[in-house]
Design brief:
mainly beta; single chain; 2 helices; two-stranded antiparallel sheet; 28 strands; 500 residues; 20-stranded antiparallel sheet; 4 domains
Length: 500
């Protein structure tokens, strides 16, 4: 257990007392209390099992006794709780008034921690073990449930075996004698919003403005991961009834977000394992809300087939699915009330998509041209070749909707010009920048009207002057100075514009 105290205007540093607080000062003290897992045996099976798993299980290993794990037989995989050490079980945001709570309430940190620890000894996740403060003082309490996924385990360990041992889609598995690789992840998060209702009743319930009694509100979310630690499914249940069966919402406010990652092609070979290919949002009944698709590497502005990655992992194109329902949808003006929950834009056919953006990169991996949904590939010319470009130009008679970025020719790191091509004979919108190559800071910035803004820095790359259009370096718009203090030697250091 741990407690943090943020001292506010009600704290007297001379006496060390916190007096008054909520309702009496503009910034009262606040308290945050935590409970963490220690990594010791807890009597709970924290393993995350594959869907449909049938096989041996283990609680605390060593036959569930919680004793020392001797590396023989099934125990070679190590105790599951080791991976959970330091994980936060719950956190409470508490009113500072708890620091002066009557002793009869036993609201002090050590008293509350002792009661929670005693409850956790018999059941680590009982209601009394999942709190450290009386609800009267608590604004919010967030619980986190943790699971452990076993990736690599000794060949003799099967309670459960390592995930990578039998997965043909993963890199070759090497024997890790007497070793295991696991990762802990946040399975479920539940937040109670209490708003210190009991304390507010005591402070303001009898005043000229009544303070109503309110029941706590609880929200819940659940997260699923793949074997690389990527989030594959997020379920936001919204408001839930804590007394109802798990994951039951009563407000019809659930949101389900599913993500499929691009792991084909050269992805695993190059450990490019964090690139989403499809991100889909649905309601609790699986009804389509939105979907985006990302394409990587390959031809500029196009990319490889969906789900494939080359050697670089550069995003080339993004599509948005506009409608998915295969049923015939009526025109928008005739959209029946009974069909309100049907997905997508009713004016479009099923499976209609929109290319949201197209991107071209130079040989150094910089994004040099971006087309918006109305941009045309043929309007942007890549030089010297389309396969290995270093720069991009708009062609004559283009349709606009192009953003072109040029980088410095020496290091190919700093964007020195950004051009928004409007097309239709309109002037482009152009901004420019000059840099200090050593510190990578901007020295000069030019806006769309050609007006420059100047910046100057000292030897520590700290800004000392800012000159807006119309001003000069001799008479800058803004001047910055820095004074460093040495409390041990009781000295103050002043620096000039050069940092000396």
């Amino acid at each position: 257990f741990a407690q943090q105290i943020m001292r506010g205007d009600d704290y007297d540093p001379e006496t060390g007392a916190t007096v008054g607080g909520t309702g009496t000062v503009p910034a009262p003290s606040s308290v945050i209390r935590h409970r963490f897992l220690t990594g010791g045996p807890d009597g709970i099976d924290n393993d995350d099992y594959p869907e449909g798993y049938v096989g041996p299980t283990a609680t605390d290993e060593d036959s569930g006794t919680g004793g020392e794990v001797i590396l023989t037989g099934a125990n070679r995989g190590g105790r599951e709780e080791e991976a959970l050490k330091g994980s936060e079980v719950f956190v409470e945001e508490v009113d500072g008034a708890i620091l002066n709570a009557p002793s009869v309430e036993e609201a002090g940190f050590f008293a509350c921690a002792r009661k929670a620890a005693e409850a956790a000894a018999s059941n680590p996740f009982s209601p009394d073990a999942m709190r450290c403060s009386p609800d009267k003082y608590v604004y919010s309490r967030t619980h986190t449930n943790w699971k452990v996924r076993r990736l690599y385990r000794h060949v003799d360990v099967d309670n459960p075996p390592g995930r990578f041992a039998d997965d043909p889609n993963t890199p070759p598995t090497f024997s890790l004698q007497e070793k295991s690789v696991s990762f802990a992840f946040n399975d479920t998060t539940e937040t109670e919003t209490i708003e210190a209702n009991g304390l507010m009743q005591d402070l303001f319930g009898g005043g000229p403005i009544s303070y109503p009694v309110r029941d706590p509100k609880t929200t819940r979310s659940q997260t699923e991961y793949d074997n690389y630690g990527n989030v594959t499914r997020e379920i936001d249940y919204g408001l839930v009834d804590p007394s109802a069966p798990e994951n039951v919402s009563f407000m019809d406010d659930e949101i389900v977000t599913q993500t499929v990652y691009a792991l084909s092609g050269s992805a695993l070979q190059n450990w490019l394992i964090r690139l989403p290919a499809i991100q889909r949002v649905e309601d609790e009944n699986g009804v389509f809300v939105s979907e985006s698709r990302s394409y990587y590497d390959g031809q500029e502005f196009v990319g490889l087939p969906l789900g494939e990655v080359g050697d670089r992992g550069l995003a080339k194109r993004e599509e948005i699915v506009l409608t998915e329902d295969p049923a015939s949808l009526p025109p928008l003006e005739n959209f029946a009330e009974s069909l309100i929950d049907r997905p997508g834009d009713p004016r479009l056919p099923a499976e209609a998509t929109l290319t949201n953006s197209r991107i071209a990169h130079d040989v150094y991996g910089n994004s040099i041209a971006v087309l918006d949904p109305l941009g045309r590939i043929e309007d942007a010319k890549l030089l010297p070749t389309a396969d290995a470009p270093t720069t991009a130009f708009p062609v004559e008679g283009n349709n606009g909707h192009i953003q072109i970025v040029k980088f410095d020719e020496d290091r190919h790191v700093y964007p020195v010009e950004e051009r928004f091509v409007l097309g239709e004979g309109k002037n482009d919108l152009v901004t420019g920048a000059e840099y200090d190559p050593g510190f990578g800071v901007v020295l000069r910035m030019t806006d769309y009207n050609g007006n420059p803004t100047l910046y100057r820095y000292d030897a520590f790359a700290r800004m000392v002057k800012k000159v807006l259009p119309g001003d000069s370096l001799d008479r800058p718009t803004e001047v910055y100075s820095y004074r460093s203090g040495d409390s041990h030697r009781n000295l103050i250091y002043d620096y000039d514009d050069t940092g000396h």
